[in-house]
Amino acid sequence: MENKKEFRNWLEAHRLEHPLVIAGPCSAETEEQVLKIAHELKDSDTTYLRAGIWKPRTRPGNFEGVGAIGLKWLQKAKAETGLLTATEVANRAHVDLALEHDIDLLWIGARSTVSPFIVQEIADALQGTDKVVLVKNPVNPDLALWIGAVERLYTADIKNLGVIHRGFSTYDKSKYRNNPEWQIAVDFQSKYPDIPLICDPSHITGKRDMILEVSQTALDLNYDGLMIETHYDPDNAWSDAAQQVTPDSLKQIFLDLRIRKEHDDEAGYQSKLSQLRAQIDVIDNAIIETMGKRMKTADSIGALKKSRNVAVLQSKRWNEILGKMILEGEEHGLSEEFILRVFKAIHQESINHQEKVING
Questions:
Q1: What pLDDT, on a 0 to 100 scale, did the predictor assign at position 264?
Q2: What pLDDT, in 10s, does the model give residues 92-135?
Q3: What is the number of other CB atoms lying within 10 angstroms of the CB of residue 229?
Q4: I need a labelling partner for 162 at 20 to 30 A (CA). Which of 2, 11, 74, 334 fits?
């Protein structure tokens, strides 16, 4: 797939002092709500006013959006404030209505990206459009599925393509609503550097007090923009109340963010170095999280051994693990000396955990 550069070129032409900002309520609720938020955002860094018109909900009975009437509210907000407009589409009917109301940016949601049939239907409806079309990552951590959705849109000659990283569902408990799995987005970015990458910290975190932290990580990883859910009264929002920020909070977030610029060779070097260090930070955090999970499993093994009065150290099992890890380490360019040091330390920590369980 060749890279699409139209949206990239638009971003470079319009992004002077800050990344692209897409902000607005999770859901359009009333005309008054949409207009009030738009007016509070018009003097911020926001370029696109977003609002969910149709809301795919996990379970029936929840608020599922106001429908097409909300598109008229977005039109009015654009006329009054000059903000461009954005909404999610999930089928051909949504696309037709959004285009009829001259919505500037359409995105495909995570639940839609998982279905090639839905993506193809949307791609056919958007054939040849010059509207900006963004594709959220699929709910599950599947890079090929994400790329496949972008390829379907590319094949439909959609000129302004981009992607949104909103995190991935996981059964394990985490501090995130959707685990960022940053490496998947970084891999996408490496494969298609000309396709703009937008971060959605609202859906990654599920908590407004984590928006700044995740936004900073995204910018450190050289993302092109942010989509942040914004509501003047987030605690009483009709959907996703916990993850929305006020317009004033959004403005403060952008004052607090460190935005790296490239003006010369030295600045370019520093920017690239910061990006690579941010990738290291992401990987280190994943290592710590994985080690924590490993030690919880060691605790469970300790409890099982205690119930059977079995010794903590099982030499045969330890030697099998060590041999296997040395071989796998070689495949990843890691020396035997390094593997021995690391896994001996891990093994000792595991023994400490098990002994603590056994000794009560």
A1: 52
A2: 999 999 999 999 999 999 999 999 999 999 999 999 999 999 99
A3: 28
A4: 74
Residue with tokens 């949104």: 164
- Domain spans of the chain, in order of start: 6-259, 267-358
* Predicted TM-score of the model (pTM): 0.78
What is the distance between the alpha carbons of residues 190 and 183, in angstroms, rounded to a whole number? 10
Structure tokens at 145: 């599925």
Burial of 331 (0-12, 13-18, 19+ CB in 10 A): exposed
Q: Given its phi and psi angles, is residue 2 left (phi above 0), alpha (psi -120 to 50 degrees) or beta? A: beta
What's the first-to-final CA gap in the chain, in angstroms? 59
Tell me the pLDDT tens digit for each residue of 237-268.
999 999 999 999 999 999 999 876 655 566 66
Query: What is the CA 330 to chain-centroid distance, rounded?
Result: 32
CATH number of 6-259: 3.20.20.70
Q: State residue 319 phi and psi, 5-degree precision.
A: -65, -35
| DSSP classification of residue 234 | G
Look at residue 46 in the predicted model and tell me its pLDDT. 96
Instruction: Please enumerate in sequence order all residues whose Cβ is within 8 A of that of 71, keeping only pairs 6 or more positions apart, or say none.
Output: 53, 87, 97, 98, 100, 101, 103
Q: 235-274: string of b/e by CB count within 10 Å (b at 16+)?
A: eebbbbeebbbbbebbbebbeebeeeeeeeeeeeeebeeb
2/190 Cα distance (integer angstroms): 13
